[in-house]
Request: fold
Amino acid sequence: MIDKRMLHSLSVLTSFFILAGCSDNNNEDHTATTGNESAEELPDENSEQSEEIGAEDESPSDDDTSEDVSEEAPDDEGLVDIDFEDDLMEPSSIKALVNKQYGLPEDYAPDDLVTVDVPTVLENPEVRQLREEAADALKEMFDAAQEDELYLHARSGYRSYQTQVQLYNSYVSNHGEEAANRYSAQPGHSEHQTGLGMDVTSESANLQLTEAFGDTPEGKWVEDHAHEFGFIIRYPQGKEEITGYQYEPWHLRYLGEELAAEVYESGLTYEEYLIERGITIEINQ
Reply:
């Protein structure tokens, strides 16, 4: 009986050790497999993903990501739609881009020119014209200035291609081509041909087109309020390298109230504003 009990006990102990040994091996295999996944595969994948996110977004939080995106890709929501071909390159568009790089056809003339209903300086009937929408806006602006006891005069509006040829050649003849190019557009590259540009002055500037106009009460009023009526000062001070023209506080360009306000509030030239919007254009070099 004693031998049988001893044999039974030995059998139970042997089984126990065998089972214990199997259990340890299973745990080691599981731990090793899990450890390999964590230490070799997952960190590699996460590391690559983190590096990509860091390189592209460099943003540890959602808030930072939004700020980065807004800086890299301008948000056009709520802004005036602008299409390069349909707006900027279309001569009849209110938004047309006309400068040293982008011109107008020689035979282009607006079909809605009207004589402006404001005080003018020159008797030439051609330059007393603007496109109808711009002419209406000009009168509203002049009337508003008059309410503030400031009196503006329109000096030169629409000019045909042929008129610009004569004017530019005269400047070249008298002052040389280099000098002429700083204040006069070559034929086909003048905003006056669009019927959307008007040179304004005042008696305080002796009805002339001079930089001094910008320092007069009328000139300062125009700088502060022209955009409210759809105009911008097209060649602002300190932007000669961008526009290619000297400072002209008298030269107003009609863009429509919404777009003019956007350009004014940006503090940029029209060219810079378009680039800021992500539109690829050539600028003066």
In short: The chain has two domains: 2-72, 84-276. Confidence is low (pLDDT under 50) at residues 1-73.
